[in-house]
Design goal:
By secondary structure, the chain is α+β, with helices and mostly antiparallel strands. It is 22% helix and 32% strand. Strands 3-17-16-18-13-12-11 form a seven-stranded mixed beta sheet, with helices on one face. It has a six-stranded mixed beta sheet with strand order 5-6-7-10-8-9, with helices on one face. Strand 8 (103-112), helix 2 and strand 9 (148-154) form a beta-alpha-beta unit.
Length: 321
């Protein structure tokens, strides 16, 4: 095991001496208290710590995670989120420098109160500002080769939780021609654009595919406002474009919607049956899918979907009870 993401609220931390665990404060849907997403890789493993970052790696890939204290429920919370984001990314980049895993491939960000108002407009905008400035401060690109990523909202008293995958070799970053690249969004979505690519295709091994959190966005605008099922279908249409692009770059077709593993984030529990029905209608019943209760980065988005298709040298197991 490279690393584990534990999903659930009020759970005791999963204590594994040799494996880093990201404790994500999101509730899974269904009659379970916890779900576990397990990342596996081949080869001899080593583990380490740098500041608050816990990481484990083999000869090619590194899994890392960091959690920083939750901001208080007061005006200073916005400054605390900026400080936590800046500190987290500084430590992540320092870890990459120290270990030699320079290519940040995939990042999962879990931000407390992501849709609440801030002096920057919304707390998600504040997070984007701090993330963007952190990339610049570490002399990293802010477009084209930025990692695939997700950013979801957690309860207001939660810590900032980030986990990530990094590679020793250069990954191929994919964009969706149906969408404006997130790092080129116009200013109406915040003073700093989100620093992520739509997907990453690993160059080593069998070319694992990492699809960013994907929503019902065409161009740069939300479509199907208020219709969770339609937003789900549009999100999967966007993922299909990325699957096709990944297959185009490989010597043979390797990925299909029904062979990926998914995490589906749903804003309103009442929408879950419609969302699940739309997912199954598009990908069938054999694909591995986990549903989580989470806030989405835009207030008019009701669902966000991320996906992964793993090669033999890297296997990402969908969350399991």
């Amino acid at each position: 095991m490279l690393g584990i993401a534990q999903f659930g609220l009020g759970l005791p931390p999963l204590d594994l001496a040799q494996v880093p665990v990201a404790a994500v404060p999101l509730s899974p849907f269904g009659e379970v208290d916890a779900l576990y997403e397990i990342w596996r890789a081949d080869g001899l493993m080593q583990m380490g710590n740098l500041g608050d970052v816990h990481y484990r790696f083999n000869g090619q890939l590194l899994f890392g995670c960091i959690a920083l204290a939750a901001p208080p429920r007061e005006a200073a919370a916005n400054n605390a989120l900026k400080a936590a984001t800046t500190a987290a990314y500084a430590q992540i980049f320092a870890t990459l420098e120290a270990t030699g895993y320079q290519q940040l491939v995939r990042v999962w960000n879990y931000v407390s109160g992501i849709n609440q108002s801030s002096d920057a407009g919304e707390r998600y905008w504040l997070f984007n500002n701090a993330r963007y400035e952190s990339f610049l401060a570490s002399d990293r690109p802010i477009s084209e080769t930025v990692p695939a990523a997700s950013a979801l909202g957690t309860p207001c008293d939660s810590p900032l939780v980030i986990y990530f995958l990094a590679d020793r070799t250069v990954a191929q970053m994919l964009e969706n021609p149906r969408q404006v690249s997130a790092y080129r969004y116009p200013a109406q979505y915040g003073p700093r654009s989100p620093t992520f690519s739509r997907a990453a295709l690993l160059s080593d091994g069998d070319g694992a595919l990492m699809v960013s959190g994907t929503a019902s966005i065409v161009g740069h605008e939300t479509v199907h406002s208020g219709d969770a099922a339609a937003q789900t279908r549009e999100s999967l249409a966007n993922i299909l474009v990325l699957v096709d692009e990944a297959n185009r770059r490989l010597p043979e077709q390797r990925f299909a919607l029904e062979t990926l593993t998914y995490k589906v984030y749903v804003r309103n529990e009442a929408d879950l049956p419609a969302v699940a029905g739309a997912v199954r209608g598009a990908i069938g019943r054999k694909a591995s899918v986990a549903y989580m209760h989470a806030d989405i980065c835009r207030r008019d988005l009701l669902v966000e979907i991320e996906a992964a298709g793993s090669g033999q040298s890297l296997r990402g197991d969908a969350p399991k009870q």
